[in-house]
Design goal:
- The complex is a heterodimer of chains A (227) and B (97).
- By secondary structure, chain A is mostly helical.
- Chain A has helices at residues 5-23, 43-66, 69-100, 109-128, 134-158, 183-222.
- Chain A is globular, with a radius of gyration of 19 Å.
- Chain A starts with a helix and ends in a 5-residue tail after the last helix.
- The termini of chain B are far apart.
- Chain B is mainly α.
- The chains are: A mainly alpha (227), B mainly alpha (97).
Chain lengths: 227, 97
């Protein structure tokens, strides 16, 4: 088995992120204290999710252009892992919020928006699995996922910035400004985003390789050809 | 007298204090104040009983530990689901590992 360079990179970066994430220097801030280190674990979940969803949109468009079912399969796996990342992002955020904002759920605009976004993609799963005809499934879920992404990005990236929010970077709070992230943190944060995103793509790829074999096996059993 | 090997964690001016109090007049003047002060300090401690607030200890580092643990569990859960599905496929294809 030959491991692609980007999978090796993902493992090395994850090791670096966990080690430097726990031991590296961070700004000493009240209330957040050491929990500022969650920047390396909670925030990359959302970056990974958006990366995977962008990948799924690419594959959805490619499916609609070419009619190649492998593109639809790739899009489906990416969205599945993106949903997992979203749930983990929401859960780690709630743990953190309990000890900094004082409650796991404060109905913060970004919390609500990400919950709605997750719901949209859970609806994608429901939609996707309610078809028997493979082509129909691929066409409808591709169109839906493009539409969902077009709503998701404004929902979590733009709308929370217009209102008051507890999140850094929203409602006048600095995002990656001088107050909550210094250069020491950037040295860990950017590799962390890359590491978790690559890990997500790796997981999606494994899932899609499994799906490909499963589809081929069931096509063989039923005697019909599936690309 | 038992001599303990441990040094007090904070260096208190014990010797000058004892010299200062080694005077009957001063002793009776300051001892009540000292007792009041100490009891107040003890009450302040008692007002905030020490609880098992693990998550708020050590600069809330355990919040980060819990988050990372959850991520690892999430990834492990994904692997487990994939493992079971591949196992089922292997069983169906007749060549289990």
């Amino acid at each position: 088995m030959k491991l692609s360079w980007w999978k090796i990179l993902a493992v090395l970066l994850l090791v670096y992120v966990v080690a430097a994430g726990f031991m590296g220097p961070v700004p000493r801030l009240p209330i957040v204290n050491e929990s500022i280190r969650n920047t390396y674990f909670h925030v990359p979940m959302w970056f990974g999710m958006v990366g995977l969803l962008a990948g799924s949109v690419y594959h959805a468009v490619q499916y609609l252009r070419t009619g190649d079912l492998s593109h639809d399969r790739d899009a489906g796996g990416m969205i599945l892992v993106a949903i997992l990342f979203g749930i983990l992002g929401l859960a780690t955020g709630m743990i953190w919020a309990n000890y900094t904002w004082g409650s796991p759920w404060s109905s913060d605009p970004k919390q609500i928006a990400s919950a709605v976004g997750l719901m949209m993609y859970l609806a994608y799963l429901v939609l996707r699995h309610s078809f028997h005809a493979r082509r129909e499934q691929a066409r409808v879920s591709s169109v839906y996922s493009i539409f969902a992404f077009a709503v998701f990005i404004p929902l979590i990236g733009i709308l929370p910035r217009f209102t008051d929010s507890l999140h850094p970077g929203n409602g006048g709070n600095p995002a990656f400004g001088q107050y909550d992230m210094d250069n020491n943190m950037r040295r860990v944060f950017y590799p962390a985003v890359l590491a978790w995103t690559l890990t997500g793509f790796w997981m999606a790829q494994l899932w899609n390789r499994y799906e490909k074999i499963r589809e081929e096996a069931s096509a063989e059993a039923s005697g019909t050809a599936v690309s | 007298m038992k001599k303990s090997g441990k040094r007090p964690p904070q260096r208190l001016p014990v010797r000058p204090f004892l010299n200062f109090m080694n005077n009957r007049k001063r002793f009776f003047l300051f001892a009540p104040a000292l007792i009041l002060f100490l009891s107040a300090a003890l009450q302040a401690r008692a007002a905030q009983p020490e609880m098992a607030d693990v998550m708020r200890q050590s600069g809330k580092i355990y919040v980060v530990v819990a988050s990372l643990l959850l991520l690892v569990l999430g990834l492990a859960g994904f692997l487990l689901v994939l493992e079971r599905r591949i196992g089922r496929l292997e069983k169906k294809s007749g060549n289990p590992v």
